[in-house]
Amino acid sequence: MWFEADLVQRAVITFDQLHAAIEQQQSERTPLGQLAIRLDYMTMAQTFEVLEAQGTSARLFGEIAVEMQFLTEDELARLLLIQNRSERTIAEILVGQGVVSREKLQEERRRFQQILSDSYATFDLDAAMP
């Protein structure tokens, strides 16, 4: 998200364009319950039970499923990893929406990575440690 924030700060994209891309990414994300059913970690009945419990709280699906012992911590970690790997990046969405070209994005990413590389090269760990 640092890269995308830099794009906004440098006026390559607007905050509204970033916000729209984030919303699209979230709308495309496969719900954890669907993944759990698909991978036979949970039954549909268990998934609905978690969703019902979630409706009355602000807690996350995975947290409730683990608490109810429908998922183990390891299974939840695997599901979250699968969910994260299967979604398009914000950059891919911005290109897909025509907000920025792939070439411009690659140019900006190289510039951003160079800044990070230069920052790490000049960082003095000894001076930062008490």
- Number of beta-strand segments: 0
The helical percent reads: over 70%
Helix segment count?
Answer: 9
**Low-confidence blocks of residues:** none
Largest sheet: none
Oligomer: single chain
Strand content: under 5%
Cα gyration radius (Å): 20 Å
The geometry reads as extended
Could you tell me how far the N terminus lies from the C terminus, measured between alpha carbons in angstroms? 30 Å
Q: Any idea how many domains?
A: 2
Can you walk me through this structure?
The chain is built from nine helices and no strands. With 130 residues, the chain is mainly α. The chain folds into two domains: 1-28 and 88-130, no CATH class; 30-86. The longest helix has 21 residues, at 102-122. It is extended and about 50 Å long. It starts with a helix and ends with a helix. The model has no long low-confidence stretch (mean pLDDT 90).
